[in-house]
Design goal:
By secondary structure, the protein is α/β, with parallel strands linked by helices. Helix content is 37%, strand content 17%. The chain is built from 21 helices and 20 strands. Helix 1 crosses helix 2 and helix 11 runs antiparallel to helix 14. The structure holds thiamine diphosphate (TPP). The site of thiamine diphosphate has 19 residues, from helix 16 and helix 19.
């Protein structure tokens, strides 16, 4: 039977098990949209392609399966670039299908022509410019395999309009593309790692997003207890081990707790799983864990010895590697190391929180109190993101959705929408800033239309807070372009989009109003006028060693 290219794409997406795609139509992908109309796949109409990209990312981050977004050629494709680059840096499986001008017009500066292949080459795991309808049968399943295999990432499939409209005979449909099973670990390497662990006196387990990705948080926790090793997490790894585990020291690095960074400075062994020594985690890399040998497990071989030299390394799935270590590592007590941790913790008490709900740290604590362990929290980028990472009680993996690598303002709202689409059974809270929320504010219309259980809390400090903080600390208080004189009424803006809007500044009891807003079903935006000049501390100055952090400790959660 004959099928048009556009129908073939839809059929292949259905066969992949894709239930929801997000996008915006335009001239070059209208044949695909025409076919989508007759498909079982649900289409979510975003209001900006970047929103569509982050909605797809939200679905992917919360499920671990590739998210799918669609855009037309030219500006549609360029609007997607940030979301694609973001997926690359955070290893998120994403398949972006873009329309392109017809093949004979490529290279003629046709209307809405842009070289999507060229533009996305450096920000994708792989990209395709499809040249015939028949190629789609190979390329679409392959795109899913590539996006999901090994270290996940974004794949772009650029489909010229005439490829979408061409009809071809399809005999057997190809198998859906699936993640390739991870390779088995080398037992001799695991033996060497286990032997080094046995000799360690002051070990630390250092977990990144790869552990969450592999669903290996439970194994990591077991290994930590077996070794009696404290656990630190990167921003992407938060939730891999529950924050209330006595061995969990939360996030390391630029905004890690003082005792976390100081303890790492004394470690004699780092067992690193699914992490890549990002500079926000390590501070000045040469000074990072100066006294420690490193055992490095990462699924991406190119990360091994890239930033820090390891003494034993394994390019492997974190789950398989941790399983292999558990089979080889015997329980050990390490009382002196536990005592050292207790002493550093005691010397670094959480500052008294008080009960002012508009102190940013308290606001995060309040949100944590109203949440369940399964609540999904998305953030934007800035101080609010770091206060969330420090203070929100993450207990499960895939529950913090945040733009870690690219640090993209505008990520939070559409990612929250994606999470709620993929997991309508879970509450979703987006913690944003008054700067970030405006970067994809148009998706409030999408949220209103979908009526999802997403709460948006805007931590409104009338500043680009993290910029203001850096100007205060590192530019001698020479503030510039970091404060807003216009004060938008965010609650009214939400109402304008057809959502509930609550302004805590106008409430006699802001804490009670916040609890009520977060507990009521359905979407809502809460404007929280927080203290304007509060800083996120501690902070490691950019380029400094982690032990050179400024400021006291993290507020307790
Ligand atoms: C798209 C984008 N542009 C610029 C930046 C640089 N930047 C990092 S944090 C920040 C301020 C964020 O302000 P806001 O969203 O209000 O959060 P706050 O720090 O006040 O909590 C800026 C401008 C960025 N991360 N992303």
């Amino acid at each position: 039977m004959k099928h048009r290219g556009s129908e073939i794409i839809c059929r292949l997406l259905e066969r992949q098990g894709v239930e929801v795609v997000a996008g915006i139509p335009g001239g070059s992908n209208l044949p695909l949209y025409d076919a989508l109309r007759d498909s079982a796949i649900r289409h979510v109409l975003a209001r900006h392609e970047q929103g569509a990209g982050f909605i797809a990312q939200g679905m992917a981050r919360v499920t671990g399966r590739p998210g799918v977004c669609l855009a037309t050629s030219g500006p549609g494709a360029t609007n997607l670039l940030t979301a694609i680059a973001d997926a690359k840096l955070d290893s998120v499986p994403l398949v972006a299908i873009t329309g392109q001008v017809p093949l004979p017009m490529i290279g003629t500066d046709a209307f809405q022509e842009v070289d999507t292949y060229g533009l996305t080459l450096p920000i994708t795991k792989h990209n395709f410019l499809v040249r015939s309808a028949a190629e789609l049968l190979e390329v679409i399943p392959l795109a899913f395999t590539l996006a999901a295999s090994g270290r996940p990432g974004p794949v772009v499939v650029d489909v010229p309009k005439d490829v979408q409209t061409a009809s071809i005979e399809v005999g057997d449909w190809p198998e859906p593309g699936r993640a390739a099973p991870p390779a088995l670990c080398d037992g001799a390497v695991l033996d060497a790692m286990a032997e080094r662990i046995r000799r360690a006196e002051r070990p630390v387990l250092y977990l990144g997003g790869g552990v969450a990705q592999a669903g290996a948080g439970g194994l990591a926790r077991e290994l930590a207890h077996r070794m009696q090793a404290p656990v630190v997490c990167t921003l992407m790894g938060l939730g891999a081990v529950p924050c209330d585990d006595p061995l969990c020291l939360g996030m390391l690095g630029m905004h890690g707790a003082r005792h976390t960074n100081l303890l790492m400075d004394e470690a004699d062994l780092l067992v690193v799983a699914g992490a890549r020594f990002d500079d926000r985690a390590t501070g000045r890399a040469a000074e990072f864990c100066r006294h420690a040998d490193i055992l490095h497990i990462d699924i991406d071989a190119s990360e091994i010895d890239k930033i820090k030299k390891s003494c034993v390394s394994l390019a492997a799935d974190a789950g398989l590697a941790l399983e292999g270590l558990l089979a080889r590592v015997a329980p050990a007590a390490r009382p002196a190391w536990a005592a050292r941790l207790a002493a550093l913790r005691a010397a670094d008490p959480a500052p008294p929180a008080g009960d002012d709900p508009l102190l940013p740290q308290n606001l995060i604590r309040l949100i944590g109190e109203v949440s369940t362990p399964d609540t999904v929290v998305s953030t934007d980028v800035g101080q609010h993101q770091m206060w969330t990472a420090q203070g929100y009680p993450f207990r499960r993996p895939r529950r913090l959705l945040t733009s870690g690598g690219l640090g993209t303002m505008g990520f939070g709202l559409p990612a929250a929408i994606g999470a709620a689409l993929a997991r309508p059974d879970l509450p979703v809270v987006c913690v944003s800033g008054d700067g970030s929320i405006l970067m994809n504010v148009q998706e409030l219309a999408t949220l209103a239309e979908l009526d999802l259980n997403v709460k948006v809390v805007v931590m409104n400090n009338a500043h680009l807070g993290l910029v203001r903080q850096q100007q205060e600390l590192f530019y001698q208080g020479r503030y510039f372009a970091s404060s807003f004189s216009a004060r938008p009424d965010f609650a009214a803006i939400a109402r304008g989009f057809g959502l509930r809007g609550v302004d805590l500044g106008a409430c006699a009891d802001p804490a009670a109003a916040l609890r009520a807003a977060l507990s009521a079903p359905g979407p809502c935006l809460v404007n929280a006028p927080v203290h304007e000049t509060e800083n996120v501390l501690p902070m490691v100055p950019p380029g400094a060693a982690n032990r050179e952090m400024i400021g006291g400790s993290v507020h307790a959660n």
